[in-house]
Design brief:
globular; binds copper (II) ion; Tyrosinase/Hemocyanin; 7 strands
Length: 400
Amino acid sequence: MKSKRLLCLFLFMFVVYSTWGYVEAAPICITLNTIQKCQAGNFFGEITQCCPPAAYTKGPVVDFIPKRDRHPGPLRVRKALQCLSGDELSSYSEKLWKAYELMQALPQDDPRSFYQQNAMHCAYGSGAFVQDGTGNLTIDIHFNWYFSPWHRMFLYFHERILQSLLDDPTFTLHFWNFDNSFDAEKANRNKEGCFRVGHFFPELYSDPSKSTFHANRSVRPFTANLPADLSILNRSETPLRFVSEAVPRNKEVMHRSMQPGKSPLDFHGWEFKYGQPQNLNISGGGSLEFLPHNSIHRWIGGSTSLTTHAPEDPIFYVFHSNLERLWDVWQRLGGGRKDPSSPDWLDAEFLFYDENAVLRRVKVKDSLVMKDFGYTYERVFDESWLFFDNSTLTPVKPSN
Ligand SMILES: [Cu+2]
Protein backbone atom coordinates (compact mmCIF):
# COMPACT_ATOMS: atom_id res chain seq x y z
CA MET A 1 0.00 0.00 0.00
CA LYS A 2 2.85 2.31 0.95
CA SER A 3 4.63 1.58 -2.31
CA LYS A 4 1.58 2.66 -4.34
CA ARG A 5 1.39 5.90 -2.40
CA LEU A 6 5.04 6.39 -3.25
CA LEU A 7 4.26 5.62 -6.89
CA CYS A 8 1.69 8.42 -7.00
CA LEU A 9 4.11 10.79 -5.27
CA PHE A 10 6.92 9.80 -7.59
CA LEU A 11 4.79 10.45 -10.64
CA PHE A 12 3.83 13.84 -9.32
CA MET A 13 7.47 14.77 -8.71
CA PHE A 14 8.51 13.30 -12.05
CA VAL A 15 6.18 15.56 -13.94
CA VAL A 16 7.01 18.61 -11.87
CA TYR A 17 10.74 18.28 -12.46
CA SER A 18 10.73 16.74 -15.91
CA THR A 19 12.46 18.85 -18.51
CA TRP A 20 11.42 16.73 -21.47
CA GLY A 21 7.70 17.30 -21.15
CA TYR A 22 7.15 13.58 -21.80
CA VAL A 23 5.01 11.74 -19.27
CA GLU A 24 5.09 7.99 -18.73
CA ALA A 25 1.63 6.42 -18.68
CA ALA A 26 0.48 5.65 -15.14
CA PRO A 27 -2.74 5.48 -13.14
CA ILE A 28 -4.83 8.57 -12.43
CA CYS A 29 -4.55 9.40 -8.71
CA ILE A 30 -6.84 11.95 -7.12
CA THR A 31 -5.00 13.41 -4.13
CA LEU A 32 -5.57 16.11 -1.56
CA ASN A 33 -3.56 18.34 -3.88
CA THR A 34 -5.99 17.58 -6.74
CA ILE A 35 -8.96 18.54 -4.58
CA GLN A 36 -7.28 21.70 -3.29
CA LYS A 37 -6.43 22.82 -6.83
CA CYS A 38 -9.95 22.22 -8.13
CA GLN A 39 -10.96 24.77 -10.76
CA ALA A 40 -14.03 25.87 -12.68
CA GLY A 41 -15.04 23.04 -14.98
CA ASN A 42 -16.14 23.17 -18.58
CA PHE A 43 -18.63 20.65 -19.83
CA PHE A 44 -19.06 21.15 -23.57
CA GLY A 45 -19.22 24.92 -23.05
CA GLU A 46 -21.11 24.92 -19.75
CA ILE A 47 -18.83 26.54 -17.15
CA THR A 48 -19.31 24.71 -13.85
CA GLN A 49 -18.51 25.65 -10.26
CA CYS A 50 -18.67 22.36 -8.46
CA CYS A 51 -15.49 22.07 -6.41
CA PRO A 52 -15.73 20.54 -2.93
CA PRO A 53 -16.27 23.07 -0.11
CA ALA A 54 -12.86 24.60 0.77
CA ALA A 55 -13.24 23.89 4.50
CA TYR A 56 -13.32 20.16 3.71
CA THR A 57 -10.24 20.00 1.51
CA LYS A 58 -7.61 20.06 4.23
CA GLY A 59 -7.64 16.35 4.96
CA PRO A 60 -6.96 13.97 6.46
CA VAL A 61 -7.45 11.33 3.80
CA VAL A 62 -8.23 7.88 5.15
CA ASP A 63 -7.76 4.76 3.05
CA PHE A 64 -10.86 2.67 2.49
CA ILE A 65 -10.39 -0.97 1.58
CA PRO A 66 -13.88 -2.47 1.15
CA LYS A 67 -12.88 -6.05 1.81
CA ARG A 68 -11.28 -5.12 5.10
CA ASP A 69 -13.54 -2.29 6.24
CA ARG A 70 -17.08 -3.22 5.30
CA HIS A 71 -19.85 -3.34 7.86
CA PRO A 72 -19.94 -6.61 9.79
CA GLY A 73 -22.97 -8.86 9.51
CA PRO A 74 -24.81 -10.46 6.61
CA LEU A 75 -24.78 -8.96 3.13
CA ARG A 76 -27.52 -6.41 2.63
CA VAL A 77 -29.74 -7.08 -0.37
CA ARG A 78 -30.52 -4.37 -2.89
CA LYS A 79 -33.96 -5.25 -4.20
CA ALA A 80 -35.75 -4.66 -7.49
CA LEU A 81 -38.14 -1.75 -6.98
CA GLN A 82 -40.89 -3.28 -9.13
CA CYS A 83 -41.32 -6.20 -6.75
CA LEU A 84 -41.62 -4.34 -3.45
CA SER A 85 -45.10 -4.70 -2.03
CA GLY A 86 -47.19 -4.67 1.15
CA ASP A 87 -45.50 -3.83 4.44
CA GLU A 88 -42.05 -4.01 2.94
CA LEU A 89 -42.97 -1.36 0.37
CA SER A 90 -44.53 0.91 3.02
CA SER A 91 -41.65 0.75 5.44
CA TYR A 92 -39.04 1.09 2.69
CA SER A 93 -40.83 4.10 1.13
CA GLU A 94 -40.98 5.92 4.44
CA LYS A 95 -37.27 5.39 5.05
CA LEU A 96 -36.27 6.31 1.52
CA TRP A 97 -38.28 9.54 1.55
CA LYS A 98 -37.03 10.43 5.03
CA ALA A 99 -33.41 9.78 4.04
CA TYR A 100 -33.60 12.14 1.06
CA GLU A 101 -35.48 14.77 3.09
CA LEU A 102 -32.62 14.75 5.58
CA MET A 103 -29.95 14.84 2.91
CA GLN A 104 -31.68 17.68 1.07
CA ALA A 105 -31.94 19.63 4.35
CA LEU A 106 -28.18 19.62 4.98
CA PRO A 107 -26.39 22.92 4.29
CA GLN A 108 -25.05 23.24 0.76
CA ASP A 109 -21.46 23.46 1.98
CA ASP A 110 -21.68 20.13 3.82
CA PRO A 111 -20.02 17.47 1.63
CA ARG A 112 -22.74 15.01 2.66
CA SER A 113 -25.56 17.23 1.38
CA PHE A 114 -27.67 16.37 -1.61
CA TYR A 115 -26.31 19.47 -3.30
CA GLN A 116 -22.73 18.27 -2.86
CA GLN A 117 -23.56 14.78 -4.11
CA ASN A 118 -24.27 16.32 -7.46
CA ALA A 119 -21.28 18.65 -7.13
CA MET A 120 -18.88 15.75 -6.59
CA HIS A 121 -20.13 13.95 -9.70
CA CYS A 122 -19.94 17.25 -11.58
CA ALA A 123 -16.35 17.92 -10.43
CA TYR A 124 -15.28 14.47 -11.57
CA GLY A 125 -17.22 14.85 -14.80
CA SER A 126 -16.52 18.37 -16.06
CA GLY A 127 -12.77 18.79 -15.89
CA ALA A 128 -12.74 20.56 -12.51
CA PHE A 129 -9.95 18.28 -11.29
CA VAL A 130 -6.54 18.58 -12.95
CA GLN A 131 -4.03 15.71 -12.96
CA ASP A 132 -1.40 16.61 -10.36
CA GLY A 133 1.63 18.31 -11.77
CA THR A 134 0.43 18.46 -15.36
CA GLY A 135 -0.74 22.05 -15.39
CA ASN A 136 -3.86 21.58 -17.49
CA LEU A 137 -4.65 17.91 -18.09
CA THR A 138 -8.11 17.42 -16.65
CA ILE A 139 -9.91 14.32 -15.41
CA ASP A 140 -13.19 12.68 -16.32
CA ILE A 141 -14.76 9.46 -15.11
CA HIS A 142 -17.05 9.15 -18.12
CA PHE A 143 -16.25 8.00 -21.65
CA ASN A 144 -13.43 5.80 -20.33
CA TRP A 145 -12.57 2.74 -18.24
CA TYR A 146 -13.16 4.43 -14.89
CA PHE A 147 -16.93 4.58 -15.44
CA SER A 148 -17.98 1.38 -13.62
CA PRO A 149 -15.57 1.39 -10.66
CA TRP A 150 -15.98 5.11 -9.96
CA HIS A 151 -19.79 4.97 -9.98
CA ARG A 152 -19.81 1.90 -7.73
CA MET A 153 -17.71 3.77 -5.15
CA PHE A 154 -19.76 6.93 -5.52
CA LEU A 155 -23.03 5.06 -4.88
CA TYR A 156 -21.49 3.23 -1.95
CA PHE A 157 -20.57 6.41 -0.08
CA HIS A 158 -23.89 8.00 -1.04
CA GLU A 159 -25.66 5.04 0.57
CA ARG A 160 -23.48 5.26 3.68
CA ILE A 161 -24.49 8.90 4.11
CA LEU A 162 -28.19 7.97 3.76
CA GLN A 163 -27.73 5.22 6.36
CA SER A 164 -26.04 7.60 8.74
CA LEU A 165 -28.76 10.25 8.36
CA LEU A 166 -31.38 7.62 9.16
CA ASP A 167 -29.20 6.15 11.89
CA ASP A 168 -29.86 2.79 10.28
CA PRO A 169 -26.82 0.87 8.96
CA THR A 170 -29.15 -1.67 7.34
CA PHE A 171 -30.78 0.84 4.99
CA THR A 172 -30.20 -0.20 1.40
CA LEU A 173 -30.51 1.62 -1.86
CA HIS A 174 -32.60 -0.58 -4.13
CA PHE A 175 -32.49 -0.59 -7.93
CA TRP A 176 -34.47 0.19 -11.04
CA ASN A 177 -34.37 -3.01 -13.08
CA PHE A 178 -34.91 -1.08 -16.34
CA ASP A 179 -33.36 -3.86 -18.44
CA ASN A 180 -36.07 -6.41 -17.68
CA SER A 181 -38.84 -6.23 -20.29
CA PHE A 182 -40.35 -9.64 -19.63
CA ASP A 183 -43.00 -10.85 -17.27
CA ALA A 184 -41.60 -14.16 -16.06
CA GLU A 185 -43.57 -14.44 -12.85
CA LYS A 186 -45.61 -17.50 -13.79
CA ALA A 187 -42.67 -19.53 -15.02
CA ASN A 188 -40.64 -18.73 -11.92
CA ARG A 189 -43.39 -18.93 -9.31
CA ASN A 190 -41.41 -21.15 -6.98
CA LYS A 191 -38.07 -19.46 -7.38
CA GLU A 192 -36.63 -16.85 -5.12
CA GLY A 193 -36.22 -13.47 -6.78
CA CYS A 194 -38.10 -10.81 -8.71
CA PHE A 195 -39.49 -11.77 -12.10
CA ARG A 196 -41.80 -8.87 -12.83
CA VAL A 197 -41.32 -6.47 -15.74
CA GLY A 198 -39.00 -3.68 -14.62
CA HIS A 199 -38.84 -1.25 -17.53
CA PHE A 200 -41.45 1.25 -16.30
CA PHE A 201 -40.32 4.31 -14.35
CA PRO A 202 -40.39 3.47 -10.59
CA GLU A 203 -43.46 4.81 -8.79
CA LEU A 204 -41.46 5.57 -5.65
CA TYR A 205 -39.78 8.35 -7.61
CA SER A 206 -42.94 9.72 -9.24
CA ASP A 207 -44.88 11.29 -6.36
CA PRO A 208 -44.56 15.12 -6.53
CA SER A 209 -45.09 15.40 -2.76
CA LYS A 210 -42.07 13.24 -1.92
CA SER A 211 -38.35 13.94 -1.65
CA THR A 212 -37.51 11.46 -4.41
CA PHE A 213 -39.46 13.47 -6.98
CA HIS A 214 -37.72 15.71 -9.45
CA ALA A 215 -39.73 18.04 -11.65
CA ASN A 216 -37.02 18.63 -14.23
CA ARG A 217 -37.66 15.50 -16.27
CA SER A 218 -39.08 15.04 -19.75
CA VAL A 219 -42.70 13.88 -20.11
CA ARG A 220 -41.52 10.32 -20.74
CA PRO A 221 -41.13 9.14 -17.11
CA PHE A 222 -44.56 10.65 -16.38
CA THR A 223 -46.30 8.88 -19.26
CA ALA A 224 -48.29 5.86 -18.14
CA ASN A 225 -47.18 2.49 -19.51
CA LEU A 226 -44.29 3.94 -21.47
CA PRO A 227 -41.34 1.54 -21.23
CA ALA A 228 -37.80 2.81 -20.84
CA ASP A 229 -36.15 2.95 -24.24
CA LEU A 230 -32.61 1.64 -24.22
CA SER A 231 -31.88 2.54 -27.81
CA ILE A 232 -33.17 6.12 -27.82
CA LEU A 233 -29.60 7.37 -28.09
CA ASN A 234 -29.19 5.63 -31.42
CA ARG A 235 -32.32 7.03 -33.01
CA SER A 236 -33.91 10.32 -32.07
CA GLU A 237 -35.66 11.96 -29.17
CA THR A 238 -38.86 10.08 -30.05
CA PRO A 239 -39.09 7.09 -27.75
CA LEU A 240 -40.67 3.83 -28.73
CA ARG A 241 -44.28 4.29 -27.77
CA PHE A 242 -45.37 0.73 -27.26
CA VAL A 243 -44.10 -2.17 -25.24
CA SER A 244 -44.17 -4.37 -28.34
CA GLU A 245 -41.73 -2.01 -30.07
CA ALA A 246 -39.44 -1.44 -27.10
CA VAL A 247 -39.06 -5.02 -25.88
CA PRO A 248 -37.13 -6.50 -28.81
CA ARG A 249 -34.90 -3.45 -29.13
CA ASN A 250 -34.16 -3.26 -25.40
CA LYS A 251 -33.37 -6.94 -25.41
CA GLU A 252 -30.96 -6.51 -28.30
CA VAL A 253 -29.24 -3.53 -26.69
CA MET A 254 -28.76 -5.38 -23.42
CA HIS A 255 -27.55 -8.54 -25.07
CA ARG A 256 -24.99 -6.64 -27.13
CA SER A 257 -23.84 -4.51 -24.20
CA MET A 258 -23.17 -7.59 -22.08
CA GLN A 259 -21.12 -9.49 -24.66
CA PRO A 260 -17.53 -10.44 -23.77
CA GLY A 261 -16.12 -8.17 -26.49
CA LYS A 262 -12.71 -8.51 -28.09
CA SER A 263 -11.02 -6.92 -25.10
CA PRO A 264 -12.08 -5.78 -21.61
CA LEU A 265 -12.12 -2.25 -22.98
CA ASP A 266 -15.16 -3.05 -25.13
CA PHE A 267 -17.18 -3.32 -21.92
CA HIS A 268 -15.29 -0.84 -19.75
CA GLY A 269 -14.38 1.91 -22.19
CA TRP A 270 -11.24 3.47 -23.53
CA GLU A 271 -8.07 3.60 -21.48
CA PHE A 272 -7.38 6.86 -19.70
CA LYS A 273 -4.02 7.21 -18.00
CA TYR A 274 -2.06 9.80 -16.14
CA GLY A 275 -0.47 12.28 -18.52
CA GLN A 276 -3.12 11.86 -21.20
CA PRO A 277 -5.69 14.50 -22.14
CA GLN A 278 -9.27 13.85 -21.06
CA ASN A 279 -11.34 12.20 -23.77
CA LEU A 280 -14.55 14.04 -24.65
CA ASN A 281 -15.75 11.58 -27.27
CA ILE A 282 -18.90 9.81 -26.16
CA SER A 283 -17.76 6.72 -28.07
CA GLY A 284 -15.03 6.27 -25.47
CA GLY A 285 -17.60 4.76 -23.14
CA GLY A 286 -17.75 0.98 -22.87
CA SER A 287 -20.77 -0.99 -24.05
CA LEU A 288 -22.61 -0.58 -20.73
CA GLU A 289 -21.99 3.14 -20.50
CA PHE A 290 -22.50 3.96 -24.13
CA LEU A 291 -25.92 2.58 -24.86
CA PRO A 292 -28.13 1.51 -21.93
CA HIS A 293 -26.64 4.09 -19.55
CA ASN A 294 -26.62 7.05 -21.93
CA SER A 295 -30.05 6.09 -23.25
CA ILE A 296 -31.60 6.07 -19.78
CA HIS A 297 -30.12 9.51 -19.09
CA ARG A 298 -31.62 10.82 -22.29
CA TRP A 299 -34.93 9.01 -21.89
CA ILE A 300 -35.54 10.55 -18.46
CA GLY A 301 -34.41 13.84 -19.94
CA GLY A 302 -34.39 17.24 -18.21
CA SER A 303 -31.46 17.66 -15.85
CA THR A 304 -30.78 13.93 -15.95
CA SER A 305 -29.59 14.26 -19.51
CA LEU A 306 -26.72 16.51 -18.33
CA THR A 307 -23.66 15.05 -16.63
CA THR A 308 -23.31 18.21 -14.58
CA HIS A 309 -26.83 17.95 -13.12
CA ALA A 310 -27.95 14.31 -13.35
CA PRO A 311 -27.53 13.43 -9.63
CA GLU A 312 -29.90 16.29 -8.74
CA ASP A 313 -32.61 13.75 -9.54
CA PRO A 314 -32.77 10.96 -6.90
CA ILE A 315 -33.62 8.46 -9.65
CA PHE A 316 -29.95 8.74 -10.67
CA TYR A 317 -28.86 6.60 -7.75
CA VAL A 318 -31.22 3.69 -8.40
CA PHE A 319 -30.68 3.47 -12.10
CA HIS A 320 -26.95 3.56 -11.50
CA SER A 321 -27.27 0.81 -8.91
CA ASN A 322 -28.72 -1.34 -11.68
CA LEU A 323 -25.73 -0.51 -13.87
CA GLU A 324 -23.28 -1.55 -11.21
CA ARG A 325 -25.33 -4.72 -10.68
CA LEU A 326 -24.95 -5.38 -14.39
CA TRP A 327 -21.16 -5.08 -14.08
CA ASP A 328 -21.30 -7.82 -11.45
CA VAL A 329 -23.55 -9.96 -13.70
CA TRP A 330 -21.13 -9.42 -16.59
CA GLN A 331 -18.18 -10.57 -14.47
CA ARG A 332 -20.04 -13.68 -13.33
CA LEU A 333 -21.16 -14.64 -16.84
CA GLY A 334 -17.57 -15.62 -17.64
CA GLY A 335 -17.04 -16.70 -21.24
CA GLY A 336 -14.09 -14.37 -21.71
CA ARG A 337 -15.50 -11.46 -19.74
CA LYS A 338 -12.58 -10.11 -17.76
CA ASP A 339 -11.83 -6.75 -16.21
CA PRO A 340 -8.71 -4.93 -17.40
CA SER A 341 -5.49 -6.17 -15.81
CA SER A 342 -3.39 -3.09 -16.48
CA PRO A 343 -1.83 -1.48 -13.38
CA ASP A 344 -2.76 1.84 -14.97
CA TRP A 345 -6.38 0.94 -14.24
CA LEU A 346 -6.01 -1.14 -11.08
CA ASP A 347 -3.86 1.36 -9.19
CA ALA A 348 -5.99 4.41 -9.96
CA GLU A 349 -7.25 6.16 -6.81
CA PHE A 350 -10.30 8.30 -6.16
CA LEU A 351 -11.43 10.34 -3.18
CA PHE A 352 -14.97 10.49 -1.77
CA TYR A 353 -16.55 11.97 1.35
CA ASP A 354 -17.95 9.46 3.80
CA GLU A 355 -20.84 9.85 6.28
CA ASN A 356 -18.57 11.85 8.63
CA ALA A 357 -17.50 14.20 5.83
CA VAL A 358 -14.06 12.58 5.94
CA LEU A 359 -12.19 12.05 2.66
CA ARG A 360 -11.76 8.36 1.84
CA ARG A 361 -9.38 7.01 -0.75
CA VAL A 362 -10.39 3.92 -2.75
CA LYS A 363 -8.42 2.17 -5.45
CA VAL A 364 -9.98 0.68 -8.56
CA LYS A 365 -8.46 -2.70 -7.71
CA ASP A 366 -10.35 -2.71 -4.39
CA SER A 367 -13.66 -1.98 -6.11
CA LEU A 368 -13.86 -5.02 -8.39
CA VAL A 369 -15.73 -7.43 -6.11
CA MET A 370 -19.18 -6.11 -5.31
CA LYS A 371 -19.70 -8.25 -2.23
CA ASP A 372 -16.63 -6.70 -0.61
CA PHE A 373 -18.77 -3.59 -0.18
CA GLY A 374 -21.23 -5.52 1.98
CA TYR A 375 -24.22 -5.97 -0.30
CA THR A 376 -25.60 -8.08 -3.06
CA TYR A 377 -28.59 -7.80 -5.41
CA GLU A 378 -31.86 -9.65 -5.52
CA ARG A 379 -32.04 -12.22 -8.31
CA VAL A 380 -33.93 -10.81 -11.30
CA PHE A 381 -34.78 -12.08 -14.75
CA ASP A 382 -31.58 -11.36 -16.68
CA GLU A 383 -32.65 -14.16 -19.00
CA SER A 384 -34.89 -11.52 -20.58
CA TRP A 385 -31.89 -10.41 -22.65
CA LEU A 386 -29.37 -13.17 -21.99
CA PHE A 387 -30.65 -15.60 -24.60
CA PHE A 388 -31.05 -13.35 -27.57
CA ASP A 389 -32.45 -15.16 -30.56
CA ASN A 390 -30.44 -13.67 -33.35
CA SER A 391 -28.02 -15.66 -35.48
CA THR A 392 -25.64 -12.74 -35.74
CA LEU A 393 -25.05 -12.75 -32.00
CA THR A 394 -23.65 -15.49 -29.84
CA PRO A 395 -26.04 -16.70 -27.14
CA VAL A 396 -24.52 -16.62 -23.69
CA LYS A 397 -25.27 -18.64 -20.58
CA PRO A 398 -24.91 -17.63 -16.97
CA SER A 399 -22.15 -19.36 -15.03
CA ASN A 400 -24.26 -19.53 -11.88
CU1 LIG B 1 -21.80 9.66 -14.03
